[in-house]
Amino acid sequence: MEGKDDPEKLRKRYERLEARLARPGPIIQGTITARTITREDPRHPGKTRTLGPYYQWTFKRSAKTVTVNLSAQQAKRFQKAIDNNRRIEEVLEKMRELSVEILNATTTGVARRNRSK
């Protein structure tokens, strides 16, 4: 498996990705959900009333799903931290792929045998 570029270009791409990891800000995993409740209005029978939105942060802790209720202000900040985490995960995935390309381009592998059947 040969790299598409020379090792120096690959290293420069890797360094640019590394720089993107320098200042991520707060990072958390999970999902923010805005929930609303629609029910019949007790003061006006036959009409419905919508309550909310109520914000919830859902994440995994020790293989269990945990849900935490948040204020609107918290929901915005938590969502930003979740977005930061997703960006970091994307950068790390690209760095892993580049690492394989760099290692393949800068090292020699085992010679393949001719196998005749």
What would you call the structural class? alpha+beta
Name the poorly predicted regions: none
Number of strands: 3
Estimate the mean pLDDT confidence.
91
Series of H and E elements: HEEEH
Keywords:
117 residues, alpha+beta, 3-stranded antiparallel sheet
Strand-helix topology:
Blueprint: H1 7-20, E1 31-40, E2 48-61, E3 64-70, H2 72-106
Description:
This protein has 117 residues and is of the alpha+beta class. It has one domain (7-106). The protein has helices at 7-20, 72-106, and strands at residues 31-40, 48-61, 64-70. It has a 3-stranded antiparallel beta sheet, with helices on one face. The model has no long low-confidence stretch (mean pLDDT 91).
Short description:
42% of the residues lie in helices and 26% in strands.
